Protein 1
Amino acid sequence: MTSPRERPAWGAIVPFLLPATVFYLGLTAYPVIRTVWNSVHEVLPRREAYVGGAHYVELWADDTFWRAVRNTVTWALVAPFLEVSIALLLALALYARVPAARILRIAWFTPVLMSYVVVGIVWMWIYNYDWGAANAILRAVGLGHWAQPWLGTTDTALPALIVVTTWMWTGFNMVVLLAALHALPTEVIEAAELDRCGWGAKLTRVMVPLILPTILNLLVLSFVGKMKIFDLVWITTKGGPLWSTETVSTYVYKRAFEWSTFDLGYPSAIATVWFVIVMSFVAVLTWMVRRQQKLEY
Amino acid sequence: MWGRVLARAAVMLVIVLWTMFAAGPFLWVATISLRTTSEFMAAPYALPETWRFDKFATAWTGSGYDTYFTNSILVVFSAVAIVTAVGAMAAHALARYRFPGNRLVYLLIFSTIVLPPQITVIALFQTLAKLGLYDTRVGLTLVYAAVQLPLTVYILESFFARIPADLFDAARIDGYSEWATFWKVAFPVAMPAIATVVILNTILLWNEFLYAVVLIADDARRTLPLGIQKFMGDQLEDYGMIATGLMIAIVPVVLIYAIFSEKLIQGMTAGAVK
Amino acid sequence: MTPRRAMPGCALAAVLAAAALAAPAASQEITLWSHWAAEQPKRQFIEEAIRRFEAAHPGVTVRATWYEKNALYAALRTALRAGQGPDVFYAEPDQVEYVQNGFLLDLSQGIDWANVEPWAREIWTHGGKPYGLPLEAWTVELYVNTRLLSELGWQMPANLQFTHGQLLEIVRKARERNIVPISAGVGDRPFPGAFLTHETLLMRLGRVDYGRLLKGEIRWDDPRVVESLRAVRALVEARAFPPGVATLQLGQSHVYFHTNPGTVFFPMGSWYTSRAFNPPDQGGQPADFPLGILRMPAPDNAACPTCRTIAVGGSYVINAASRHPDKAKAFLNAFTTPEMGALWLQNVMVQTGIKADVGMVTGPRAGYFRDLAAANEGSEYFFGIPLQILQGRARDTFTQVVNTAFISGQVTVEEVVRQMNAAMGAR
C-alpha cells in the first residue's frame, strides 16, 4: 500500500523541509546537544569547567537516581498494560452497539482533556484522608479500616498515582482503538460470521490480530509518556513519601532547580542517560511494531 | 439465549462502572463549584441546595481569567497553525520523496518525542533570551510549535505515506507544480489526519505548563494553566472557589471536544493514529 | 474602595502622568518580582511602600510582578542565568547559591542599616558583606487551643512551656477522648513536620552543638540526638499526629487545628497569622477562637530549655546586573524606617528584620503580639531552620525523612539516624 518514494527532487524537497529544519535545529536539536555537552561539564552561570565522566561516575552510585529509575520503569510497564487492556474492553463494548455511545465516548474521554494541574488537584481531593472519595467509599461499604492517606504511605503512593494516569488515559486509548475497529474491512468480519466463529474466537483470532499494530503503537505512546512523567507527581507528591514516587524527571528537575546549586552538569548527565535508555526501549518497540506491520501486508 | 443476556448484562455493568469512575470526579468537582466551602465541608457529597452560578462571575472577574484566556487562545492557535503547516510540509517531503538521509531525518525528529523537557528548557530559555523573545507570546508560540513538531510529523508522515502515488502522477500530468501538488492535492486528502493533529495539539498545548512557567514572566502575558495555578494560590483553602476555577478551565476544552469529536474520530478511523 | 481612599491614588497618578509628559526621557522603571501573590497583607504592605517611594522620587516607577513562590524561583533561575531578570527580587537567606554565583549586589553602601536588626543583617552577610534586606522574620511557636486544653484538665503552664513528659500525657488523654492532639501540614511544604523534632534537638544539644549537628560535625548516632528522636517518636507512637498527616497540606493543617476537627496543639511558624487571621470562610480561625502561644516542649536533660529558632524569611535583594542599582537601593530604603516596620507588624502580624516597636501596634490584634512577646521572653535564639542550613542531599533527606516519614510513623529512630548519617556524609 505504501506509495513508492520518488527520486530526489531537491528543488522541491528543500523548501518543504526547510521550515521544519529551522525549528528543529534551533529549538530542539541545539538544546539537546547543549544538554549532552553540559553533562561532561560543571555548568555554573559564570564558570564552566570540563569534568569528563565525573557526573556519570557519581550517577552510578546515586541511590536516589536508581530508586527513581525503578519507580519510573514500574510505572511505564504497568500503566500501558492497564490503560490499553481496559481501553480494548471498553472499545469492544461500544463496538457492540450500546445505547448512548456518543455520550459515553465523551464522558470517558473527558479526563484526558484536563491539564495535569487540574487532575492533580482533583485527585488529591479524592485521596484526602478525611473527606476524600476513596476513603468515603471504603467507609460506606464497611471497609473503613482500609482507609489510608493513599498518597502519603510509601506502599500505596505509586499505585495510587498509576490509578490516576490510568483514569486519565484509558479514554484516549479507547477512542483510538474504537476507530481502528470501525476501520476494519467489513468483509473480514462478515466472513468470520459466515464461518460461524464464536464471539470469543472472532475476537481473538480475527479482530485483535487486525488491530494489533494500533495496540502496539498505543503501548509505545503510553510507555514514552510514563517514562517522562513529571507534572502529576510534582503537583501531588513531589516524589514523596520517602522517594516512593520519585521519577527520573522529577529528580532531574529537583537537581536542576530545587537543590541549592546552579550546576546544570549533573542533571544534564541524568537526562542524557535517561534519553539513551528511553531511546533504546523505543527503538526495540518500534522495530517490533514495524515487523508486525510488515507481516500484515 | 440466557448466555447472551448474561453477556449483555456483563457488558452493561462494565460500561456503567467505568462511566462512574471516569466521569465521577468531574461531576463531583462540578457540584462543588456551585457550593460554598462551608457547605462543602459540612457534606462533601451532597448536591447543591442553591445553585450558586454567581460564583463563576466572581471567579472570572476576580482572577484576570479574561487576560489568561486571550493569551492562551493567541498562543495556542498560532502555534497550532504554524506547526500544522510546517509539520505537514515536512511529513509530505519525508513520505513522498526518496533521498539520502530521509530515514535519518525522520528518526531524528521522532527521537525527540521521548526527550524529557525539564532539562532542555534551560537551553531553550537561553536561546530565546538571545533572540530577545524571552517573556513574549511570540517566543512561547515558537517554542510550542517546535515542541509539537515531532508528534505532528510522526502522525502525518504515516498518513501521507499511504496516499497512492497515482494521485501525484495525475497531478503532474495536469501540470501542477510540486508546491501546488502539496497544497491542492496532498493537504486536502490528508484532511482527516490534519484535523486529528490540530485537535490533539490544541488540547496538549492548551494544558501546557512547564514551558509557560519558565518562558513567561509578566502577568499580562500568562496563559491559562499559569492563571489556574495562581488562582489556586489566591484561594488558599477555599475549596468551593477552587472548584469553580477548575470548572472554568475544564469546560471550554470539553466543549471543543464535544463539538469536534466526530472529526477526531474520523481522522483516527482513516488511520491517522495508527 | 471608598472615594476618599481613591483620591490620593488619583492625585498621584495625575502627578505621575504630568511628570511623564514633562520629562519622558527622565522616567525610569524599576522592576520587582515578588512572592506573596496570594498573601494580601504582605502584598498591600509592599504596594504601600511602592506608593511612598514613587511619591518621593518623581519620574521613577516600580513595576511589580507577583508570583507564587515556586513559579518565582523557576523564573528567576533562568532569567538570572541569562544575565536578565528584574532589578529587585524576592529571596530567602537559604539561597546562598545566588551569592555564590555573583547574582546579588553588595548592599554594604547605600542602605540605611541603622534601622535594620543586626542579627537579621548578619543572616544575610557573606564574606563580611550584606546582600539582602530582611523584611520578614519568624519564630517557631507552639499554638494551642486553650479551651480544649482545659477540657482535658490542663492549664497553661506559668513559664509557658510543658515538658515532653507532660505533652505525652496530654496527647494520651486527648486520644482517649478521640481528639487528635497535634496538627501539622507537610503535604506541600518541606519543613512544618520537622518543627517539633528540630526544636527538641536544639534544646537538648544547646545552640553550639545543634549548629555542629547541622554542619555534619556531630553524627546523628550521638546519644543526645537519639534520645531527642526517641522523645518525638514516643509522641508519634501515641498517635499524636493526624492519621493523614503525610498528605495534609499547610493550609489544611491550619483548618484542622482551629476548625475541623480541631486539635489541641499546632507547631507552626509565627506567620500562622497570615492565614489564621483571614475571615473564617477563607481558611481563617473562628472569631472567638481561644488561641494561646506556648514555647516548644522541653526534653529531659535539656542543655538549653530556653533555646528556640528564629528565621529570616522573605527578603528583597538587588540584581547585580541591574541597570539602576542606586534607584533600586533607594527603593529598599523605602522599607527601612521605624514607621514602615510598625506598619509591617500591624498589617502582616509577623515579626520583621526592620527595627520596629511592638508597642506601636494597636487595634484588635495587639493582644496577639503581647502573647507572642510573652512566649518569646528570655529566649536564646538559634538562627535559621535546618532547611535553611542543610544543602543538597542532606536537605532532601531531611525533608523526606524527618519532615514527613518520621512523624507519619513510617520510619523508626534507627532508620532516621542511618539515613541522616549517610546523607550528611554524602555531601
Protein 2
Amino acid sequence: MTSLAKLPRFSHILRSITATNVRYIPPSRLSSHFTYYPDTVADSLGETARLNLFQSINQALDTALATDDSAVIFGEDVGFGGVFRCTVDLQDRYGKDRVFNTPLCEQGIAGFAIGVAVGGATAIAEMQFADYIFPAFDQIVNEAAKYRYRSGNLFDCGRLTFRAPCGAVGHGALYHSQSPEAYFAHTPGLKIVVPRGPVKAKGLLLSCIRDNNPCIFLEPKVLYRAAVEMVPTRDYTLPLSSADILDEGEDVTLIGWGTQVHVLREVAQLARQQLNVSCEVIDLVTILPWDREAVFESVKKTGRLLVAHEAPITNGFGAEIAATVQKECFLHLEAPVERVCGFDTPFPHIFEPFYLPDKWRCLSAIKKLVNY
Amino acid sequence: MLSKVIKSVLKPNQNQMRVLAPFMTSTVMKESGTTSATFDTRPYKLHKLEEAPNTSTTCTRDEALLYYKQMQIIRRMESASGNLYKEKAVRGFCHLYSGQEAICVGIKAALEPQDSVITAYRDHGWAYVMGCSVTSVMAELTGRTQGIVRGKGGSMHMYCKNFYGGNGIVGAQVPVGAGVALAQQYLGNGGLCIALYGDGAANQGQVFEAYNIAKLKDLPCIFICENNGYGMGTSVDRASASTMYYTRGDYVPGLWIDGMDILSVKEAIKYCKDYCSAGKGPLVLEVATYRYSGHSMSDPGTSYRTRDEIQEVRQTRDPIMLFKENIISANLVTAEELKQIDADVRKEVDEAVKVAKTDKEIAVHELAADVYSAPIENTIRGTTPFEPYTHQRLSKVINWH
C-alpha cells in the first residue's frame, strides 16, 4: 500500500482555464443547462488521459484496489459496472471476492460496510443513487459517524467510503435528483465531499478512501459523461476540507460545489460582462468539515457573498455558511448574504429548469448584492 | 352441471418445471344465458397453510374478453411507453410491465371495491386496472395536463381511488401497505391491502419489519413478491440466500403462484381474501413471472441474461398467449373476437399516445402547489423573487372517507 505521505498533493497546481477551453452544452429540456469549465493540470504531473467523470472514478477505484489489498467494492449491480459504469471491468480485474453485487438493501449495505471497515478492511460501498441513501441513514448517522466517539477511539470505521450519484440530471424527477449533503452535514464524525469534475474526483475519491474517517462522496451524475478532462494517470490524492478558488475577484464571492460550480463560473463571466462586477468563485469541495478560512478570507475581501446549491434553500448547507459568515465577517459585509438554491418543494418532475438555481437567478442575486 | 374437468398432466410439486402443459380445460356451459368454462389452476406451493386454493376455476365469456383486453392494453401501452421514452417524450424514469400483465389483471379480478393496492415503480399496468384511463397513464408519462397527477409524478407515481401508487424507492411501499391494512382493519370496511414488491425489494429490511407488525396485529394484508427473476441486473440466486420468497415471512403463511396464468392468480387471490376476512392475518405470496424489458429504460436487459432466455419465455410462458389459447380452445371466445379486441386496443393506445404527445403541460405556478396542506407562508421559500409562486391546493384528497 502506498504511503499517504508519498502521494503528491497538487491542488495548488490545478490551473484555471482560458475561455477557449470551455465546452458549451446547449440548453435543452432534456439536460441541465450549464457550461462545463474543465480543469487543467500542470505538465509536471506526468502522463494524462482524456477521461470523463465516470472513467476517472473508475480509475480511482482501480488504483484503490491495486494499492490496498484489503479494499473491497460492493453495491447494487457494481459487478458489471453499475448503472453509471463507474465500476466497469473492476470485477474482471480484481475478482468476485473484491468487487461484488449486494442485494437491494441500502441499510444492510451501509451496516455491512461499517462492519467491513471496523473489522480492518477498506470498504468502498456504492449507493446506486443518493436518493436511495435514506434507508441507510441510521447506519451512517448513528453507527458510522459515532463509532470512534462512543468507543473512546478504541474502534473506528474510518476506512469507509460511501459513493453516491447526486444532483439534477435533466430528467431525474423526485427520486433520482436529490442532493442530500446537508442532511449528513448535521452529523459530526462524517466527511462529505462533492467533486466538480474528473481531475478533482480522482484525487478526492482516493483521499476519501484513504482518509481515516467515514466519508460520503457525492458524485454529480450529470457530469459522469458531460465532464471531460485530461486526468493524470498516476496515483494522487487531493486535500479534503480545502476549498478551491477558481476565479479571483474583488466584489462578490460566489460559493458552490459540484455542478453548481460551473454555473457560478459562467455567472462570474456574465457579471463581469453585464454588470462590470468582479466575482470570486469558490468551489467548497468538502461540505464537512468545510474550509471556513478560505471563505472568510474571500468574503472579508469582497464584502459580499452568494451561496448557491441545488438542494432546497431551508436548512441547505448554504444556511450554515451564511450564519457562520455573518458571525465571522460581520463588519466586512456590504450586503446580507444571498442564497440561490432549489425551492422548498420536492424535486419537480417537469419543472426542473425552473427549480434549479440557474445562472439567471444567480445573476439577479448578484445585482441585489451590489445594489444593496 | 359442470362437465368433466380434465386433470392437469402436471402433478403437484412438479410445477417448477417450466413446461407448457395442457393444464387447462374446459367445457363450454350454457346456462341461463351465460357462457363459462372451467379451467384447472396451476399447482400452488404452500407454506404453513393447511388448505390450498381450488384446483379449478371458472371463467365466464365476458370475463375472458375483459381480461384479454386488459392484458393486451397493458402490453400495448408498455410498448408505446418504451417508444415514447426512446423518442425522449418521456422524461424521468420508466419501468415496463410487459410479461407480468397476468398479475395485475388476475389480482384485480378477485378484488372488491373496498380493497386497496400499493406497488412500486412498475406501476403503469396497475394504474390502468385500478381505474386510470389509458390516456391519463400515457399523458402522465409525458408530463401533460391530462396525466393522472397532471404530469407532476411521471412514470413511477400514478394513483387513483384505493390505489396508493407507484412508489419510487425499492421496498418502501411494503410497510406503507401494512399501514393501509391497519387502517382498513381499524375502519372495519372489510377491505384488505395488497402490497406488491419485487424479488429485489424482498431483501430490504423494512419488508421484514412489515411482516412482523402485520402478523402481530393480524392485519388484512397480502404481501406479494412479484418474482421476475432479476432485481435490476442481478438474478435472484445471486441476490437472495433463499429464493423461496413465499416462505420468507417465516411465521406468516405463504403461497406460491404461477404468475403467468391469470386464472391461477385470480383463484389464489380469492382464497387469500377469504383467509384475510376470516381474521387470520397476513399472507406472503410469491408470484412467479418474467419481465421482457430491462429493469428500466437505461438497462437493455441483455447483459445479465441471454436473448434466448427471453425468447423462450415469450414462446412458452407468455401470459397473454397462454390465456388466448385457453379461452379459444375452450370455445369461450373466437379468434376473430380477439382479433377485433387487438384492433380496438391498438386504436385506443394510439389515440392515447397522440394526446400524450400533444396535450399541454401545466402552468409553472403548479411547481409550488401541494407542498403542504395549509402553509403558514403563502409563498414557497426560495422561489424566484420576480415571480414568487403562491402555494395552492389543486385536488381533493380521494382516499379520506
Protein 3
Amino acid sequence: MTRYIIQRLIYMVITMFLIATLTFFLMKFLPGTPLSAADKLSEEQQAVVLEKYGLNDPVPVQYFNYMTNLVQGDLGISFQFDNREVTTIIMERIGPSMQLGVQAMFIGTIIGILLGLTSAIYHNGMLDYSSTFLAVLGQSIPSFVFAGLLQFFIGVKLGWLPVALWEGWEYSILPTISLAIFPIAIAARFMRTEMLEVMGSDYIVTARAKGVNKFGVVFKHGFRNALIPLITVLGPLAVGLMTGTLVIENIFAVPGIGEQFVKAINMNDFPIIMGTTLLIAFLFIFIILVIDLLYGVIDPRIRLAEGE
Amino acid sequence: MDNQKPSKDLFVPVETKETEIDKISRPSLSFWQDSFIRLRKNIGAMIGLAVLVVLALLAAFGPYMTEYGQYEQDLSRAKMPPKVEGLGWLGMDGMLSDVQSADTVEQAKTKAMMRFNNQEEYITTEVLNDGSNGEAAEVKATYDVYAAKNMDENFWFGTDGLGRDQWTRTWMGTRVSLYIAFLAAAIDMLIGVAYGGISAYYGGRVDNYMQRFIEILVGIPNLVLIILMILILEPGIMSITIALAISGWISMARIVRGQILKLKNQEFVLASRTLGAKDSRILQKHLIPNTLGLIIINTMFSIPSAIFFEAFLSFIGLGLPTPMASLGTLIDAGFDSLQIYPHILLFPAIIISLIMIAFNVLADGLRDAFDPKMRE
C-alpha cells in the first residue's frame, strides 16, 4: 500500500511538472509582448519594464524563476487588474466555488443514491422506469441548458428565487441544483446497477434464507455493499463538477473561480488563465488520487490483493 | 366398475434416430444477429436512432430550406419571434406578449404599449386583473411583430439579435455537433483501438512504456489540454479537433488493452499462430473482432461527452469564433436576451438535448444488446 501511494505521488508530481512546463513555454511562444502599450514607450522605458519583470533574462533562467515562484505559490500578476497577484485573486474567489461544488456533490450523491435504491427495490416497476428516465435526462441535458431553464422559469417567470448574483444562501440554490443534476443522474444509474447486482448475489440469498426481513436485507446486506463501488464514480463526478462550475458560475454571476476564468479568457488575461488552469489540474489530480486511495482503504478485497 | 383402461396399442414408442438428437432445430444466430435482434426490440434505442436520423437529415438539408444564409444580418428584423403556419398553438405564432402591472388598468395598458413601441394597431391588450380587489392591475399585451414589420416570410425558429435566421444557424450548429460526434468516434476507433491493441499484444517493454505514457496523459484534464491548445492555435474547430485527438482515445485504449490481454493467450489465437498467421492477421482477424462489442459500446458513450465538450467550450468562448454557429455559441447568445426573447435560447437548447439524449439512449441499448447476460 505504501509503495502504491509513493508511486502515485511520484506520478502526480511528474504530471504537475509537465503541465507547469508546458504552461510556461506556451506563454513564451505567445504572440505579442506583455507590454500593452509597447509602441508608446521609448526603448529605455521598455528595457526598464522588461528588466523589472525579469523578462530580459535568458529563457532557462526565466523558467527556473517561474518554477521556484510556482513552488512557493506565486502565480504571477494579472494583466487586467493592475498589480494584483493571481494567487490573491484565486484565494478571494475560491470560497463560492468550493461552496457550490461541495453542496452540489453532497446533494447530488444523496438524491442519486436514493433514486437508484428506489429503482433497484422496485425493479421494472413504474418507479424504476420513471427514475431511470429522469436519470437519462439528467445525464444528457447539458448543465448550462438546464441552468437556463431554471433561471427562466423559477427565477424570471415565477420569481421564487433570485435570478443571479451572490448575496446570501438563497442565491446558491439555483446554481446548486443546476450543478447537482449530473451527479444525481450518474449516482442513480450506478447505484441501480450495483444494487441489482448485489441483490442477486449468494449472501443475499443466505440472508433471506435465515429469515432477515426485507428491510434488513436491502439496507444491512445490500445497500452497504452496493455503496463501495460508488466511490469509483465520485472522482469523475468531482471533475465534472469542476467543469460545471465554469459555466454555472458564469450564468448565475457567482463571483467564483469559474466566472473569473471565463472572463479572463475573453480578456486574454493569460496569467489568470494559466493560474486557474494549474489550479484545476492540481485539484483534478489530487481528487483522483484521494479517491483511489480511499477505495483501497474501504474495500478489503483490494487491500488483500495489494498485500499479496 | 367401469374403469376404462386405454388400450395398449395406443402407446407407440417414439422413433428417435440417433442423428435427430444432434440436429439443431432453429437456425443458429451469430453473435451480431443475436445482438441486432435484441437491439431492435429495445424501443428506446430505436426511438433514439430515429431521432438521430431525423436530426442528421435536418442538419444536412435544413439550411437550404430557407433563403437566408447563416451570416445574413439585418437589424430591421432582429429578434423576430418564431412563426410557423399552423403551429400557432405551440406558441410559434410570431407574437410577442408581455404582462405589465401597475396601479390602474390604464397605467398598465400604457406601460404595455410602451413596451412594444406604442404601435397600437398591432397590439391587442387583455386585462388579466382590473385591480378592483386591491391587487395591482395586470394587462397582457400581444404584439404582432410580423404584421408590424410588414414581413411576408416566416422565420420558423425566429431570428437572433442581429437578424440572422435561427433555423439556418441552428442546423449549421447541429452540423458542428454531428461532425464532433463523427470525429470522436473516428479517434476512438483508430487511435484508441490501435494503441490499446498494440500495447497489449506485444506486451513486455512496449506495453510498459506505452502504459506509462498513458498514465501521464490521463493526468492532464481535458479542459487544461484544450486551453493550452487554444493558446497556441486560434480558437476554432481545428483546436477542438486536436484537443480531442490528444485526449479522446485514452479510455478506449485502456479498455481494448484489458480485453486483448485476456484474449491473446486463448487457444484459438494459439491455433492461428501455429498455422503461421502473422501478428497483423491475428490482431485484425481474431483479437479486434472479439473486442468489437466493447469498442462499439465505448465509442457510443464517448460521442455524447465529446458533443457536450464542444458545446461547453463554445459556450464559454473557447470554441468556435463568433460569426460561426455552434449549438454552444447559439445557447450562449440566447442567454443575453433570455428574459424577453427566450426563443433564441430555446431551439438550440432543445436540439442539443435531443442529440445528447438520443446518443445516450442508443448507447444504453447497444450495451444491453451486446451483453450476453441480458440474453433470454
Protein 4
Amino acid sequence: MAEFFLELFSEEIPPNLQKNARVFFLENFQKLFEEKNLKFKKSATYSTPNRLIVLFEGIGKEVREKSEEIKGPNINAPEKALDGFLRSNKITKNEVYKKKIEKGEFYFFKKSEKIIKTLDLLEKNVPLILDKIPWKKSMKWGDFEMEWGRPLKSILCVFDNKSLPFKFYHLESSNNTFIDKEFEEKRRTFKNFKNYQSYFKKIGIIIDQNSRKKLIENALHKISKRKNLKLDISNKLLSEVVDLVEQPNILSCKFDQKFLEIPKEILIVTMQYHQKYFHTFDQKDNITNEFFIVANSKDTKGFIKLGNERVVDARLNDARFFWEKNKSQNLIKQISKLKSINYFQGLGSYFDKVQRMRKLGAMISDKMLISKDKVELSTSICKIDLISDIVNEFPELQGIMGGYFANSQGFDKDISLSISEHYLPTGIDSRVPRKPYSVALALTDKMDTLVGFFGINQKPTSSKDPYALRRSALGIIRLLLENKKEFKISDLINFSISLYKNQGFEFKNKNVQNELSLFLIDRLKFYMKEKNIRHDIIDASINSFSIDHISKMFDKALALNKVIIKDVGNDIIASYKRASNILDNELRNKELDLSNSTDPAIFKNDYEKNLYKKVRELRKYFTNINKDEDYQVTLENLAGAKATIAEFFDNVIVNDQDQSIKKNRLELLQMLCKTFDNYINFSNIEST
Amino acid sequence: MPKKIKKIKKKNKPIFQSFQDTILNLQKYWSKQGCVIVQPYDMEVGAGTFHPATTLRSLGPKPWKVAYVQPSRRPTDGRYGDNPNRLQHYYQFQVLIKPSPKEIKKLYLNSLNVIGISHKDHDIRFVEDDWESPTLGAAGLGWEVWCDGMEITQFTYFQQMAGMECKPVSVELTYGLERICMFTQQKKNVFDLLWNNEGIQYREVFHQAEKEFSAYNFEHANTENLFKIFDMLELEAKSLIEKKISLPAYDQCLKASHVFNILDARGVISVAQRAEYIGKIRDITKSVAEIWVNSQK
C-alpha cells in the first residue's frame, strides 16, 4: 500500500476554477484507477488559492492485468481493419491467430498476464490528466505554451514516499514545493501528505477547504453570538470566501452609523457582493453597522481592520451621494428621458416599452379587478430607476431602487411595492410577489418582453438564452400558479402583439402566439417536474387543456399526483383502463361507428342500468360544479364509481352476439370514459 | 534583474508618502528592474493601457519593459470636484513587461514596499478580474489586487490585443495612484492628498480643473461639432491606414476615443450607437496594430 500525492502550485486561482479543478481531478484519477482495477482506501482533493492537491491513500503498488483473449476483425474484413487492430494493441501480425466463432471467423490475440506498476501508470497518466483539465477560462504566460487557470509554477508529485518525476510542458515534477506564496523563494521537500498538511498547519495555513469552511462558519457564529447580532450567511459568499483565503482570520468591523439611513439593500450589496463581507442584523432584524470580514492573515498592527472600514465608508459615501441626489428627482418628469435608452434593436426604447406596458397592464388590471389607474401609473414609472446614478452603480438593485424612489416621493404603497418587486421571481427558488398590483406589473413586464423577443426571433436555443427568456416565462407560470390566478394567456399575447404593431414594430415572426404558448407550456412542464409530478400526469394534463388554463392544468395534475398511488388513484385508473381497453380493442379491430349516447331501452340488466345511472350522476356533477371545483372531491367521486363499474364488468359481457346490444354497451363505456376525461385525459396515464 | 531589493524600514502605520514621491519611487524601482521609463503620452487617453508603449509594444515577439505615469481621463466620472473619491482626470502608474517574468509577483510586492505598503502588515489579496477592453479589442486574465479590501492595482496577463493573440504574453500592472496615496496618507478625501512635502495639496493642483472639466464634459461640450470631429478623425485614420502609417493613425484613434467619451458623458449616445462607435474605434485599432506588427519584422 502506498500514497499518491500531487500538489500543483500556481499564482492565485479564482474560487470557481478551484472548485471545478477539485472535482475534475478527483473524478479523473478515480476513473484511471478504476479502469486499471487499482484499489485505494481514500481519495480527496483540496485547494487553497495557490495550491491544488490530489491525494489517494492505500493504493496498491502494482496491479495484475489478467490474461485475456481479445477479438479482432473478421478475417474477411479489409486489411486496414487488421492493421488498426495490431496498432491499437501494439502487436505484430505473428501474434494473432484465426478462430471460428458463431458469427464467423475472426482474428484473435492472446494478451498475456502482465503486472503493471502503479508508479509507471502514474508517470504516464498524471501529465495526460493534467493536460485534459477543462478550465472555464485559461491563460498563457511568459513565452510558454502551457495553458492553466493562472500561471502554474511548480509540481510536487510523490508516490510511496518517493518523488515521482515527470515532465509537463516546461515544468518538471519533484518532491518539493514553494512554501512562501508571496515571493516563491523558499522550497521544502515533503515525503507524504501528512507531513505536508501538518507543516502548513504549523504556519497557520489550512489546506483542506472543508476545514476552512467549518472554521469560518463557527467563528462567524461565535462572534455574532457574543455581540448579540444575527447573521444571514449567503452560501455563495461563504464558499467563495473559503476559496479566497488560506489562513482565515475573522475581524469584526464597523462603518459609520450615519449610513444606516440609506436603503439596506445598498448596504448589503456593498458589503456582500463588492467587498465579500458578512453583514449583520440586530435582534429586531434591523441591519446594523457591524460587519465581519475574513482576512487572509493576522492583523498584527490593526491595519487590516482599519483599511477595510475605510473602504466601506468610502463606498457608502459614494452611494449615499447618489441616493440623496436620485431619490428626490421627480419620477413622472423623467418619463420622457426613457426615450434616450434603447430597450432592444427592433423593440424600441424603454419609453416605447413602458407605453406598451401601460396598455397591457390596463388589460390585466381589468381581469384582476384592481385599479386601472394605479397599474397604469406603476407601469409608467417602473423603469425610471434605470437612468439613476445609483442603479448605474448597483445594477443588481434595479426595481428595488425604483420602489424606494416611488416611496420617498409619496406614491401609493401598492405602487412602490409593485415597482420594487416587478423583476421577481427571478428563478425557481426566488420569491414570488403576492400583492395584486405587484403580480400585475410583474406579469405585464414579462409578457411584453417575451412577445417582443419572440417577435424578432431572438428565441432561446437549447444552450443559449442570453436574454433570460426562460426565466421570464417561468416567472409568468409561477406568478399565475402561486397566486391561484387564471388568465386568458392567448388574449394577453394577442393584445401585446397588437401593441407592438401599433407602435410600428413589424415582427418577422408571424407565429408568435403559437410559439410563445408552447414555450410557456414547456416552462409549466419544467415547473411541474420540479414539483415531482409524474411525467404521464404532466402530459395528460397538458394535452387536456389550452394555454388559457395554466392554473387548471397544474392544480388538476397536482391533485391527481397526490392520490395516484393511493386507493383513490388506483380505483380511478383501474376502472378507466378496464373500460378503455375494451373500447380500444374493439375500435382497433373493426369499423365501428359509435354515437355519443347509448340507448337505455335495450339495456338487458340492472348492471347496465346502474352504470348508466352512475355515468349520468357523474355528468351532472361535472355540469354543476362551478369555478371552485374541489379537485380532490372530483377524484373521490370518480373513484366512487368503482363498485358499479366492477359489477358491470363482472356480470356483463360487452361482446354480445347481437351487434346492436354490443354497440350499445360499447357506447355506454365510451360515455363512461368521456365523463372521466372531464377531469383530465386519463388515457395518457400509465397504470401502476 | 537584480534579485535583492533594499527593504525599507517598517514603522507602525502605513508609511506616509507624498503623491509625487510615490510616483518617483515607483519610477526609480521599475527603472532598477530594467524598465524603460517613458513619459506620459501627450494626448487624452482613458487609461495607461492606451499609451502606444503598451498597446502596440505588447504585440509581436520583441521583449519590452516599460514603466510610466499616465494622466487618464474619464469624462463620465467627473463630479465637479464635489465627490471625495471620483475624478474625471487622475493618474495611473503603468508597467508593462514582455514576456511576463516568472517572479513578477515578487517584483510587484516589493514595489509596494517602496511606496509604503509592506505585504507583511496588510492583507494583500489577488481577486479574480478578467479584463476586457472592447475599444482596443483586448482581453486578459489576472486580478485586481486588494490591500485591506481596497483595490490598488490591476494585474493582468494580456492574452489578446487589437484582436491579435499576444505571443509572448505581456504582464501589465496598473497602479491607481490616488487610491494608493489615500491609503498611505490616511486621507478620506482625494483633494486632501499631499502632493509634495511642502504642504501642497491635490486640491491646489487639480480642484479647479475638476470643476471646469466636469462642466465642459457634462454641459458645455458642443456635441454637434464633436460628432463632426469624430467623423473627421475616423476618415483621417482610415486614410493613414491606407498609406500604411501606423503611429499617426493610432493617434487619430486615441483622439476619436476621447471625443466619444465626451459625447458619452454628454448623454447623447444611445445604446445602439454606442456599440457602433466602439466598433469603429476597434476596427481602426486592429488595422493600425496589423500595420505596426508588420513594420516590426
